[in-house]
Amino acid sequence: MGRFILRRLVGMVAVLFAVSVLTFVIFNVIPNSDPAQRMAGKNATPELVASITEEWGFDDSLPQQYLTMMRKVFTGELISYSTRENVNERIVEGIPATFSLCIGAAAIWMFFGILFGYLSAVRAGGWLDRGLTVLAVTGISMPVFWLAAIFLNYLTYKTEIFPSGGYVELTENPLEWASHLILPWVTLAILYAGFYSRVLRSSMLDVMNEDYVRTARAKGLSERRVMSRHVMRNSLIPIVTLFGLDFGALLGGAILIEGIFGLEGVGQYAFEALSNVDLPPIMAVVLFGAFFVVVFNTLVDIAYAYLDPRIRLGTSAQ
Amino acid sequence: MAPESIAAAGPAGSSPWRLALRRLRRNRVALAFLGLFFLIVVFVLAAPLWADNVAETGPNDTHTLEKIAVDGEKRDVVDPTGQPIGPVWFGADGKFFLGADGRLGRDEMVRLMYGGRNSLLIGIASALITTFFATLLGLLAGYYRGWTDTVIARAMDVLWAFPVLLLAIALGLVLAVGGLQIGPIHLSGGSIWIPILIIGFVSVPYMARPVRGEVLALREKEFVEAAVAQGAGSLRVMFGELLPNLWSMIIVFFTLNIAANMLLESALSFLGVGVQPPNASWGTMIATGYTLITTAPLLTIIPGTMILLTVLALNVFGDGLRDALDPKSKVRFEAHSGLSTPEGSETIEGVAP
């Protein structure tokens, strides 16, 4: 077991390393993107450009520049090329908004995704199932930023039911915090709840046809116990997998949602940096996002072992 | 005629494809949505007809300072405050049917039709690219296993860990600035092929993984052993034996991938790193319309509704296709290097908000 964990950790570091190299390469093949030129401004003298180049180390070899940048990422000394702000500080500032958005939305979409998926599967083929299927497929077929724009227009600008834009700290005013986040939460949750309910429905239908479910019924277990102990437990596995991937990816920046609702989280910072072709913050945000994707994948594997006794027994028998 | 009549007699003599077609024909909902998709295709293909004969303007022609006669009354296409004219329906013989698109005073209906062409073209072309490379990589990794598999699977892990929208935006920015040079082919920054290549590329891992899993399972089957015993080489086994067994999976993935790619295109275009101005796509039209959402909400609602209808049609039809091709389709698991993914997850990958 210890060796297994060690191997997974080495794998995680390797993936993060590759992601950082890929990011660095993408931003070093851009034509006309000499950062010194950009920083010096439009009417810069060659001397100014040369001094900036030297000061920031842009004349070092690319591997050297990569190493310097990575060292700064981990020591927290990374400075943006365009705004000259400390990148790590900006990311830390964005974390509360991004985490509030993701955790709240995830709670809503898990609740409705599981509820609707369960009802659909139990009533498969009936009217309730059909109605919920229509809702779910419509939910996953909408551009999420478009839905956000429509909500904002009709529920904020036109009727002022919800406050417009911005993020209020939870510690500052919990009521304001929630009211600013309801629309972003709901928008994100509609997309994912639709998707999760579809996945849960099909996985429950598969499990309900398994022999062990028939056996459980034959033993005379109550329907409630069959559902909770035998059906749901196994049907939730794909949901857990998806949740790991989606939640990890969202923490890395819900770029569109944060941008439209002006939440000033990590995602909005990422987009700002991207529009300025500003490599240091992009590198940091990409690593930040990839880190969560990789970590949540590992957590998913552990959750598997808990949900599926076959996996757990398989590892302990070795 | 003989095989046809046998097939009609019952399932005993029917090929799997024929059975699937029969199941699909019974799925009215899926067929209705396929019909909707064809209607949308006809709508965008009719763009030049509408533009030349009814609207008498092109998708990128501006009419900022012009006036048009709506039901005999002269009206500004764009009024002095910058507000574009709203839908006039047939008030001006079909000109500005849906109004103008903003300060530039372009015909919204004409742009909607031409923009739809771009959105659909990007969705379909990028799905072709994704499907081709995902199938090839999945076949190679699943067939050869060993270090070939390790290299491919690790490369996919890296792309998978990269937040997909961030990667697509980064590539979009880089390529929109400098264009792309592949051997003798040069694509300029505004080329529609740039979003096609980017979207096709970033979606590959989401499809290559399940294909690889399927190949790993298939290659243990007896028919592969039989082919090898008859002296079939690697290529023959991969493309003659394994590939035909993957077709049904590939077709379903392809359909759903078009839907997911259209959503990704709209997001990239909305952020300004997809289709470049002055060209239209439904995503860029939402971006233009969004700046006027409080005064002219239809400019946001209409292109978004077109995306919704198209993606919905593809998703519903794709689900029906899956049910028809694989009636017992199960959510299978491919446990590998800890990253596991259910096969059902292809539906909306790439829509990371």
Summarize the structure in words.
The complex is a heterodimer of chains A (318) and B (353). Chain A is an all-alpha fold and 318 residues long. Chain A folds into 2 domains: 74 residues, no CATH class; 221 residues, MetI-like (MetI-like fold, Orthogonal Bundle). Chain A is built from 14 helices and no strands. The longest helix of chain A has 36 residues. Chain B is mainly alpha-helical. Chain B contains 13 helices and 6 strands. A two-stranded antiparallel sheet of chain B has the order 1-2. A two-stranded antiparallel sheet of chain B has the order 3-4. In chain B, a hairpin with a 2-residue loop joins strand 3 and strand 4. The longest helix of chain B is centred in the middle third of the chain and has 37 residues. Chain B is elongated and about 80 Å long. The N and C termini of chain B lie far apart (53 Å).
Notable features of this structure?
heterodimer, A: 318 residues, mainly alpha, MetI-like fold, 0% strand, disordered C terminus, B: 353 residues, two-stranded antiparallel sheet, disordered N terminus
Summarize the entry for a quick read.
Chain A is an all-alpha fold and 318 residues long.
Topology:
The complex is a heterodimer of chains A (318) and B (353).
Chain A: H1 2-28, H2 35-40, H3 46-56, H4 62-75, H5 87-122, H6 127-140, H7 144-157, H8 174-208, H9 211-218, H10 223-251, H11 255-261, H12 266-275, H13 279-307, H14 309-317
Helix pairs in contact in A: 1-13, 5-6, 5-8, 5-12, 6-8, 7-8, 7-11, 8-10, 9-10, 10-13, 11-12, 12-13, 13-14
Chain B: H1 2-9, H2 16-26, H3 28-45, H4 47-55, E1 67-70, E2 73-76, H5 108-144, H6 146-161, H7 164-178, E3 180-182, E4 185-187, H8 193-202, H9 204-218, H10 222-229, H11 234-270, H12 282-290, H13 298-325, E5 335-336, E6 339-340
Antiparallel strand pairs in B: 1-2, 3-4, 5-6
Helix pairs in contact in B: 2-13, 3-5, 3-13, 4-5, 5-6, 5-8, 5-9, 5-11, 5-12, 6-9, 7-8, 8-11, 9-11, 10-11, 11-12, 11-13, 12-13
